[in-house]
Amino acid sequence: MKNPVDIAFLNRHGRVVTMFKNFPPDCIADSSRGAVTAVEFPPNALRESDTGIGDTIELDPA
């Protein structure tokens, strides 16, 4: 990864339990709050969508 990204960690219900905005390259993100998956977004996507802890993110497998 050469550019910053936004990262949302989701629990088994798709709710955001931890998030990092503009996470720098070459670093390791960790969530120990019951996350089962992590989703990367372009930088500032979480801020622009006003996403916060407890929000639900639905993923479309298509």
Commentary on this structure:
The protein has one domain (5-48). It has 1 helix and 3 strands, in the order βββα. It has one helix at 45-48; strands at residues 5-10, 16-23, 37-41. It has a 3-stranded antiparallel beta sheet with strand order 2-1-3. The radius of gyration is 11 Å and the shape is globular.
List keywords for this structure.
62 residues, globular, 31% strand, 3-stranded antiparallel β-sheet, mainly beta, single chain
Brief rundown of the structure:
The protein has 62 residues and is mainly beta. It is built from 1 helix and 3 strands, in the order E-E-E-H.
Radius of gyration: 11 Å
The whole-number mean of residue pLDDT values reads 92
Shape: globular
What's the count of strands? Answer: 3
Low-confidence stretches: none
Strand order of the largest sheet: 2-1-3
If helices are DSSP runs of H or I spanning 4 or more residues, what is the number of helices? Answer: 1
Beta-strand residue percentage: 25-35%
Structural class: mainly beta
Distance between the termini: 24 Å
- What pattern of helices and strands is seen along the backbone? EEEH
In total, how many domains does the architecture comprise?
Answer: 1
Q: What percent of residues adopt helix (DSSP H or I)?
A: under 10%
Describe the largest sheet. Answer: 3 strands, antiparallel
